[in-house]
Every structure is written in C-alpha cells, then in structure tokens.
C-alpha cells in the first residue's frame, strides 16, 4: 500500500492526521508543505488538493482531504484500533466534540483568515492575536461545558479509549498554548490532554518532533 501524507509541522489539522495514522500504526511517506512559504498555494500542490490546504493523504493514488472525513474513512478501512465508538449515541457525541473544534474554532483562526483580517481590514498583530484568543476562549469554554454536561469523559474525551475527539482536542490545545491563551481554565479538557500526551501516538507526532519544524 503506497501512502503519502502532505503535512506542515505546525498545522493542527496535519497533527490530527499524524496522530491518527500513528495510533493505527499506518506507515506513510511524508511530504512537507510550508505554509509560510505558501507552498500550499502552488499549482503543483493544488493539482493534488484543489482546496490548497494541508493535510492531504494519498493512498494508492487516490487523494483524501478534510481530516474528519479522512479519519472516518481510515477507521472503516482499518478498524483496529478503532477511533470511532460503537453506538450511534457515542458517535454523535464524538462527532459533536470534534466539530466544535474543527468547524467552530479552527476555521476562524486559520492562516488565511488571519491574513484576510490584515489585508482587508488593516488589523495589526495585536488585533489578530485578540481575535485568535477570542475564538479559542469561546470555543473551548463551550466545549468544557459540553463535556461536563454530557458526563461521558474518562481518561479521554469519551471514556477510556482514544477517539477522533482526542485527535482534534490535542492539536487545538497546542495552538492555544502557542498563542499564549490560558488553558488551565478548562480542567476537564486539560485532564484529557494530559492523558493523551502520555501516549506515543500523540507525543511522537507533535509539531516539535517533525523534520520540517523550525
Ligand atoms: N477542514 C480542513 C481544514 C484544513 C486547513 O484549513 N488546514 C490549514 C492548516 S491547519 C491550512 O492549510 N491553512 C492554510 C491557509 O489558511 O492558507 C481539514 O480538516 O482538513
């Protein structure tokens, strides 16, 4: 099986993919796409991924984009160890948890959005940092509350097994920490984060371990 991952070390969605591939022990050939150098917008890369975003997984010549779709796809093809739970109710919870991060926090703080705030509205560094912190705080505080109300978390976001939700949470916490956003105010999320960071699939794929890290 020829498998290729197009990744950028600091990209939280790339980190999601690296975690899940490591967790499932799926080997791949990495290809490094620099976001600061705008390599994701070059025509060669856009030929592979029309969205011009990372990550991109290629398996046996077919491209797979959108991390949540890719994670569910891989979980169907390689079910062990699972990243999606067995019951519809648990799957709904894991998808909701994952989407709070991937649909409602991450897109607002994406590189192209921050750049657009600068180019279209003249936002300076301080303003874009404030924007970033605002959406982190709003998103993570509602996620903390959601987790508390659902009462389904254990060592991980759902009970004591790693799921897709954990692959979304950990990179988002890394992003929050990188931008100096307070995270101690989310005790339930941070307990899950700390437990994830005891596992090689999370530590060995973190941004600082990547050959393209600078
Ligand atoms: N929803 C997409 C998001 C992919 C995405 O936005 N990736 C970011 C890096 S974390 C990116 O390529 N940003 C480049 C840009 O905004 O120009 C996914 O889950 O794969």
Sequence-ordered SSE layout with sheet pairings:
Elements: E1 3-7, H1 12-23, E2 29-32, H2 43-48, E3 56-59, E4 62-64, H3 67-77, H4 88-102, H5 111-121, H6 125-150, H7 164-178, H8 187-196, H9 200-203
Parallel strand pairs: 1-2
Antiparallel strand pairs: 1-3, 3-4
Question: Which small compounds were modeled alongside the protein?
Answer: glutathione
Kindly provide the radius of gyration, computed on alpha-carbon positions and rounded to a whole number of angstroms.
17 Å
Tally of structural domains: 2
**Within the CATH hierarchy, at the fold level, what is the topology of the largest domain?**
Glutathione S-transferase Yfyf (Class Pi), Chain A, domain 2
Number of helices: 9
Question: How would you explain this protein's 3D organization?
Answer:
By secondary structure, the protein is of the alpha+beta class. The chain folds into 2 domains: 80 residues, Glutaredoxin, CATH 3.40.30.10; 114 residues, Glutathione S-transferase Yfyf (Class Pi), Chain A, domain 2. α4 runs parallel beside α7. The longest helix has 26 residues. The relative contact order is 0.15. The site of glutathione has 13 residues, from α1 and α5.
Q: Summarize this, please?
A:
This protein is α+β, with helices and mostly antiparallel strands and 214 residues long. The chain contains 9 helices and 4 strands; from the N terminus they run βαβαββααααααα. It has 2 domains: 3-82, 3-Layer(aba) Sandwich (Glutaredoxin); 88-201, Up-down Bundle (Glutathione S-transferase Yfyf (Class Pi), Chain A, domain 2), CATH 1.20.1050.
């Amino acid at each position: 099986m020829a498998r290729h991952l197009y990744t950028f070390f600091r990209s939280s969605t790339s980190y999601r993919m690296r975690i899940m591939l490591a967790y499932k022990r799926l080997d791949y050939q990495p290809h490094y796409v620099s976001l600061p150098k705008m390599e994701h917008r070059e025509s060669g890369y856009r030929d592979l991924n029309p969205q011009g975003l990372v990550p991109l997984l290629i398996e046996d010549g077919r491209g797979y984009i959108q991390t949540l779709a890719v994670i569910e796809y891989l979980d169907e093809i390689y079910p062990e160890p699972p990243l999606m739970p067995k019951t519809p109710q648990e799957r709904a919870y894991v998808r909701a948890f994952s989407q709070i991060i991937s649909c409602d926090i991450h897109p607002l703080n994406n590189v192209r959005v921050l750049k657009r705030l600068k180019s279209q509205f003249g936002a300076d560094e301080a303003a874009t940092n404030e924007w970033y912190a605002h959406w982190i705080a709003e998103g993570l505080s509602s996620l903390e509350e959601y987790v508390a109300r659902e009462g389904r978390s254990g060592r991980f976001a759902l009970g004591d097994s790693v799921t897709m939700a954990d692959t979304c949470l950990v990179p988002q916490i890394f992003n929050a920490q990188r931008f100096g956003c307070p995270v101690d105010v989310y005790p339930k999320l941070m307990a899950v984060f700390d437990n994830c960071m005891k596992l090689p699939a999370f530590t060995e794929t973190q941004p600082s371990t990547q050959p393209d890290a600078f």
